[in-house]
Design a protein that fits this description.
alpha/beta; 4-stranded parallel β-sheet
């Protein structure tokens, strides 16, 4: 696992370690871009991170994409539910798998811009809970 680069003069100091839960049910068309945006943001704001993709019984190739992403980046793990068990069970599974002191939840459909993800990660540690929202254009 490579160490993130040191922050530049305009980058925030990286102090926090976050496990990022990404639920994915039939997200083959969106998952790779969503994960790339999460990694982009994490590498710019966090001291350490892990991405836990929970494939919730997808039948469209999502699981295979998750496995490939995990092979390409050792900070990404793919966890597979045997069938669609729903978001609550996927969340419980991610919590069981999480190894870092903070946990974040970001969807696998890529609906959140990477700059917004970066801002969410930058707010970690500012409060007990960081609950962002975004408008729907």
């Amino acid at each position: 696992m490579s160490k993130p680069p040191s922050p530049g003069p305009t980058e925030p100091a990286r102090l926090h370690r976050v496990s990022v839960f990404v639920p994915a049910y039939n997200e083959a068309a969106n998952l790779e871009a969503a994960i790339r945006d999460i990694v982009w943001a994490a590498e710019r704001t966090l001291a350490d991170y892990e991405v836990i993709i929970v494939d919730d019984g997808s039948r469209d190739g999502t699981g295979e994409i998750a496995d490939r992403l995990a092979e390409e980046n050792d900070r990404i793990r793919a966890v597979h539910q045997p069938r669609n068990l729903g978001i609550a069970r996927a969340y419980e599974r991610a919590l069981d798998e999480a190894k870092l002191e903070y946990v974040s939840f970001l969807p696998g459909d890529g609906e959140i811009a990477r700059e917004s993800i970066r801002d969410i990660f930058a707010a970690v540690g500012a409060a007990d809970v960081v609950a962002p929202y975004h408008g729907n254009s």
